[in-house]
Amino acid sequence: MSKHDEARRAFLKGAALGASAVAGAGFMPRALAQTPEQHSSTIASTAQTHAHGAGHCAFFNDDDAVTVAALTERLMPGETDKPGARDAGVIDYIDLALAGAYSDLQDFYRRGLAALDAYCHNAYKQSFAQLDAARQDAVITALEQGKATGFTWPSSQAFFNTLRTHTMEGMFADPIYGGNKDFAGWRLVGFPGAQPAFSPTDLQSKNAFAGPVILGLQAQAPARKG
To answer: How crowded is residue 222: how many other Cβ atoms within 10 Å of its Cβ?
Structure first.
């Protein structure tokens, strides 16, 4: 893994750890902070369709899903024994969010992805997903620095910043929201999930969570219903 890849992973992991420390019960995007009962049926059906290789489900078409999956993987690249965005199902999280709580960003994504596709074809004669890693990184850098041409609204920087935020959410939010598959993000940063039995002292220990099973909101839903 290149130093560039390591720097990206370190940034997102550091941001997630800060969010977890503040939240106390796992990174959760505020716009999606609803009860498990409100989300479980929708997420269960749509996430299952993603898992069976449909490529898209709730909002994205196939081409956009491929592009966003490639973008998020370059923002949070995986490596041996360390999950990346693909492993964590970040594309599922973003797709579900745009079909629900983030529906006001649908046009933002449509226009941003269209501008990105035009920029990549103008610069490299290929779509983003078809580019090699070095060129994908060059495109991402151009987005981040506001140098990618052809963007009006959203600006390239706004598109990049939003996508990076949603990548972090998809990696580290509770799995009930569609991402963080198999608690990949939480395992990566050593977060135990919503564990009501742990004391404040336990939460400060780096070794307290080596043994217990990681729990998410879905596991606690039956108790809340009763």
So the answer is: 9
pLDDT tens digits for 27-86? 556 556 544 444 444 444 444 444 434 445 799 999 999 999 999 999 999 887 888 999
| Domain locations in the chain as residue ranges | 3-189
State the Cα–Cα distance between residues 202 and 206, nearest whole angstrom: 8
> 16-29 pLDDT, tens per residue?
555 544 344 445 56
| Pick from 7, 203, 182, 178: nearest CA to 100 | 178
Give the C-alpha separation, 181 to 112, whole Å: 26
Angle at 144 between CA 142 and CA 119, to 5 degrees: 40
pLDDT digits (tens, 9 = 90+) for 151-165: 999 999 999 999 999
CB atoms closer than 10 angstroms to residue 208: 16
Residues 6+ apart with CB under 8 A from 82: 9, 188
Provide the mean pLDDT of the chain.
78
Total Cβ atoms within 10 A of residue 55: 16
DSSP 176: G
Range 112-118 contact pairs with CB under 8 angstroms and sequence separation of 24 or more: 112/151, 112/154, 112/158, 112/159, 112/162, 112/163, 113/64, 113/67, 113/68, 115/148, 115/150, 115/151, 115/152, 115/156, 115/159, 116/67, 116/143, 116/148, 116/159, 117/67, 118/150
Q: Record the pTM.
A: 0.74
132 is written with which tokens? 């090699």
